[in-house]
Amino acid sequence: MWQQIDNKLYREFLFADFPEAFAFMTRVALLAEKHQHHPQWTNVWNKVEIWLYTHDEGRISEKDEQLASEIDQLLTGQSK
Amino acid sequence: MWQQIDNKLYREFLFADFPEAFAFMTRVALLAEKHQHHPQWTNVWNKVEIWLYTHDEGRISEKDEQLASEIDQLLTGQSK
Amino acid sequence: MWQQIDNKLYREFLFADFPEAFAFMTRVALLAEKHQHHPQWTNVWNKVEIWLYTHDEGRISEKDEQLASEIDQLLTGQSK
Amino acid sequence: MWQQIDNKLYREFLFADFPEAFAFMTRVALLAEKHQHHPQWTNVWNKVEIWLYTHDEGRISEKDEQLASEIDQLLTGQSK
Q1: CB-based contact (8 Å) between A23 and chain C?
Q2: What's the distance, CA B38 to chain centroid?
Q3: Is the pLDDT of residue B47 over 80?
Q4: What are chain D's domains?
């Protein structure tokens, strides 16, 4: 469900509440540091919106595809 | 599965890996600040151990029962 | 340095890098859960932008002033 | 101030309160994922204790020295 918008990969995520949303953000932050590739993102209450793009190249790169894929895996893995 | 050990409520939690364990810890930290009641806890890789007790009273209080119950709810809720 | 923009309190925060920015976000998340009052916020790399407003009232309330003040105190406290 | 205890590097860290301690833990978690090398650690309120060792080798390795050094840098960097 990632969409290409303005040369960025974009996806919206909805959770039950703020703590669930922020725990997800923490996992994305850990992925970002692991890959040294960071998102642009917005949160309000239970909603997280993420935009992925490669700043140096001004476009979507393999790094973004990889990070998008690993973020999606967070949602289908074991529950927490 | 909380046990009473040395006048503390104790439970061990196992996760798939470190990021999943730390996301759980983040949720527990948010609960702790919400209730202004904080755990003693240990983590190594995918294992989190939590001890709950009420320092001021030197024993397990209702606050500990409440926090234990809300921590358990994290594990049975929607996945993340 | 909070400004009123579109009936919201707004402030931009700049840090050394992503980990420093995300540690700040974690502290704001803990404050938000403590007060049960949550921000609208955006992060990209070392920049965090926060908008505070009271959704139910459609305007800035005392809750927002309080949260803004406590967020500012994070920046002037002991270093981490 | 890291000490060698039982073939582990050990250091205790004291903070003003729980949120400050947990923000530090979040930074250590980000370092750990970046390096794919994780601590054994304990927290209660404002105190964090960390033990670093290399499980596969049953001793302190260069990875531990490196992580200890980067953790120390968190404490001397710009404040948050």
Answers
A1: no
A2: 9
A3: yes
A4: 3-75 (3.30.1360.20)
Cα distance from B73 to chain A (closest Cα, Å)?
A: 10
Q: Identify the CA nearest to B22 among candidates A56, A21, A30, C16.
A: A30
Mean pLDDT, all residues of chain B: 93
Chains near C, with 3+ CB pairs < 8 A? A, B, D
Residue C29 in contact with partner chain B when CB distance is under 8 A: yes
What pLDDT, in 10s, does the model give residues C15-55? Answer: 999 999 999 999 999 999 999 999 999 999 999 999 999 98
Q: Which residues of C touch B36 (CB under 8 A)?
A: 34
* DSSP states along D1-63: --EEETTEEEEEEE-SSHHHHHHHHHHHHHHHHHHT---EEEEETTEEEEEE-BTTTTB--HH
CB-count exposure of residue B70 (10 Å: 0-12, 13-18, 19+): middle
CA-based nearest distance D37→chain A, Å? 11
Interface test with B, best of C26, C28, C30, C74 (most B CBs within 10 A): C30
